[in-house]
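G., the chain you wanted modeled:
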Amino acid sequence: MTDVYDPFDPGFQADPYPAYRRLRDEAPVHQHETPSFWALSRFEDIWQATRDAETFSSAQGLTFYPDEIGTLGLAPTIVMLDPPRHTVLRRLISHGFTPRRTAALEDRLREFVRSRIALLERRQADGETPDLHSDFSSPLPTFALAHLLGVPESDRARFDPWVSALTTLQDDGFDLKAMRGGAAEAVAEMFAYFTDVIAARRADPSDDLISALTAAEADGERLTDWDVLGFCFVMVAGGNDTTGNLISHGVALLDGDHAQRERLAADPSLIPNALMEFLRLEGSVQALGRTTTRPVTLHGTEIPAGEKVMMLYGSANRDEREFGPSAADLDITRDIPRHLGFSSGVHFCIGSHLAKLQARVAFEELLRAHPTIGVDTENAERIASPFTRGWVSLPVTGL
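Predicted structure as tokens:
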């Protein structure tokens, strides 16, 4: 199976799904040699593991690299903590990062989406090939996060390189020293910027998310500066490309089934469920790691304590044992009672409501303006990552 599943192989990254199916059928508990880790590929196994933080710990990091947190050189963020500390931080953060605060963004998001659609149209009118991902999908979460975090218009140009740098950081296994180009400097600049913002908001609160987080209190406890800074880190690193790729993947999937695209354009009320189906079929996060705190036996194979275990969400969400014989097919009306697109358990994505809002608005406006929009996947470029799946560029067709 080592020849079948190599997370660094460009062929696997281009289309991981045949390898995932073989893993599910032949080696649901797979031991990978270099780097050393285990991989779970079936839905039920991963569903249960993500809901057992006591056995499958996040405190050693989220990749298969050893000493990931030490390599990062920073204190662990909320996604790299276990209960009870994780529970306390999540409760405090939830006091500031509320669904109501997210919903208040909708009008601004819709205005921004319409402006990006107009940009696609201008590029085509000028004889250029508009790019769905770089011109439309990716800028949307960058705009949303900058607005939520209170980054003023004058500083927005600085925000884009920070987002790109944190994306690179993930792909480099959270190794600041290995980061390409000026990414390490961009990360340091972002941290310095938000450290100053946090201090300013504590002294003079505003109506942004950072102000709400600095004021959040539960049972007499408040967030430290690092807690707030770490959450900014998580939101930018984990919430930007993932949301952009959800939108781009959705357009690509619909371009492969024009009947469902036509149905979705005719009935926008189907969009929320369709988004979950897009995320199920083409998960922005393909795999995240945990570390065993005790020996675990699954399907007759024992994983020792202290081992890195990759949860292959991209495989689990296509598991025929959970979703039936049509698991690999697009069905925008599919009943999806359980889903791992946003993980599950204590680390269920805290920004899921923000991601769904952005993607819903994007599809409502895009399909209203251009119901036959498509993409040229033959001339597209995918990101190269063993953990995430998405695009660098995705040329538009059908405007």
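Residues 183-203 form the longest helix (21 residues).

Shout if anything looks off.
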